[in-house]
Amino acid sequence: MAELIAKSLIRDVPDFPKAGILFKDITPVLEHPAAFQEVVNLLAEDAKAKGAEVIVGIESRGFLFGTPMALQLELPFAMTRKLGKLPYEKITEEYALEYGTNTVEMHIDAIRPGQKAYIVDDLLATGGTAAAAQRLIERLGGEVCGFGCLIELGFLAGRQNLKGFPITALMEF
Ligand code: AMP
Question: Any catalytic annotation for residue 61?
Fold first, then answer.
């Protein structure tokens, strides 16, 4: 496959949000309509091929790519959000970070039983966030049919923490 325009636009920001982390900044992709469209098209194609019936975006950068995908595919869009952001009845999953824990939530009616859900985020690192989204979806009776992201940090082996569904990353670093 030809190199994506988006790959040349990812900006490395050292020591953000803390020392030792090389942050992959996707904001230049959003500022470049052809690159933005290209990644949305590729992820939407993948979600369609996986039989997605709902697109699930992970807060917050998963929303940027998941919402145009859902519109393009004429599918519902559902959110996993950080603790305390969702107004209605919700379920909660906690997962481990390098230091401490993080919590994600979904509305109880975000996924219908039996629905095939395709999860979207900007980046796959350890896979902890995507695995928590999978647990939320499965607790609501849904089935994860795939996970799509722009960037995979291969050295963190996130793929090995994600079981039961195919993973698509448009670029690897
Ligand atoms: P993980 O749960 O470890 O797979 O982390 C994935 C989540 O953390 C995604 O929502 C990413 O946006 C964010 N993230 C983790 N590491 C980085 C990084 N080096 N650059 C940008 N975002 C990151």
Answer: yes
